[in-house]
Amino acid sequence: MSIDLCLKEKFDAVNTSPSLKCETATYVFDWRPDEKKLKDITDILSKTSGKFVKIKYIDTGYSIVVTCSFPHSLTGALIIKLSENLELLIKNGLMKLTVGYCTIWKKQKIQEMQEPLEEEVQEIKEQPHDTKEERVAKLEEKKTEGATPQSVINQDILSIDTSVTIINKQLIKEMKTNKQLDETLTKMKVKGLQQLLSLGTNSSLVSYRIRRGMRMEIEQLQLLLTNKTGLLDQSKLLIDIKREIAELQEEISIMSVHILNKREENKKYRNILRMNKPTEESVFIARYHYHATMSGRISFSEGEQLEIYEKEDSFYWKGRSLVSGDEGVIPSSCVYSMSESLQLLKFILSIEEVSLPILQKIRDNSCSNDEKASLFLEIINDDPIMISALRQDKKQHDKRVTGRVKWDSDRVTLYSPSPVQCNDAISNINNNRKKIDLRSSSTIGTVSLLSSTKLHTLNLRRLEIWLTPLTNDCIQYLCTLLTNNETIQELVINGHSISDRGVINICQALEHNFRLTSLDLSNNPLITCTSGQALSHLLLNNSFLVKLNLRETSLSTESILLILQSLCYNNNIRRFILDERHKETCINIYPNYHLIHDRVRWWPY
Question: Across-strand partners of 549?
Fold first, then answer.
């Protein structure tokens, strides 16, 4: 398409507000509209400006004026790109280039001055003339002879013509000098702009060199101005040179401001980069896909890298995704790092006693440290909640946490209990206290409590386990307790305390349990779709459960649909609690939802 067909036409697909001056780039080319095509403009802009600019409209005067827009945040990058390709733009007829309020390059039209001056020089060369010394001698002679004023004037005119010849010789020489100055000033502007954009930590030294170089150019111009005597348009030339000096001084001021701003901006960015650069110890890997169920938390996928920068809470850390950039709360049980795993191995090898037989085997093994590390990683892969359990053990060990036991009329609560406190509580408990509440317990405390055979015969009604990661060994003790104790009616395992393997084992233990009526497995992100089949079988085989709570878990919608199908065959469940994020899909997909809707409770975000 020819350029003259799209002059003054808007290139935006829809009407948009006018671009700000600081977001506008103008290219002036020495082209004729009927000789160039729109593709010529798009090609040269693509080569020299990349994808930073977008054409707004094209205008014409004595040349082609292309006005483009660009995001203000890309100003620095655009100027760098244009500086690198300035020579290509000039070769393609660039007369003027501005970005925002800054003129990047402007062609000085010396040719317009040169042609008439050369004509005058040619005319003067054809006329006879005397030297300056001869003219002075003749003037003195005329004065002595008492020549008439008119003759003196005629002689003076002749002498002026002679002076013009000399001046024109100087003018030709001076025009060459001006051309060199023009090229020097152009190179100096480009070089100064490139130096401004490449400012780094040594911006003070660079700014000093730029100012010193510009001052030297000003001094050279002033020196040339002093030596330029006898030119025809001396006053005009003086004005032009002063204007050049003023422009240079203005550029020095602008560059100085840019340098100061750039220095502060670079300092700010360096601090941000220094703060945001994750260390090896702070980068964790997601073991599972996690869907945030509450505000303030972030979702992530299996294998995603996460930076952790705050671990004040044992089970809820603060960090950000290195993939999406989202920041917020991250459940610690869903992430791991190799660096932390090796620290946990070092911890279990250094303490006096471990409660889990599988860890004791590693301690007793006489193999090398590398082989022990390999065995430890296998244990972690087999029992994912082991990491959370060892984190809690290490934290309580390092902080020398002292547990406590609280006795109420119908309940005993154990907070981070030691083995001694667990044994004392079991010895003193009686049938009047029908509830046991275990909170934030270490593995050694949990094993001490759940492995006690006295609990098998105790008249318990309710057992609660909060913020206590149950490893495979602990789950086995709990399943034995559920099988042997014939009085437990309510079981609560809440707060990052159980994983899929634990759920599967407990469901198997409860399939033929005729006493448990309430099972609460809420707030356990390590319960995933792997547990869906076991929970579905539990509802099909256990007809005594009345309440099942599965909110704030990582169960998939497909797993929930499978469990809902079993719920149709279990009329004893009166209250089934699920995350509300599954509600719409379940209602729309499950055809028999209307048969169970009054028994399902959707837990809001």
Answer: 520, 577
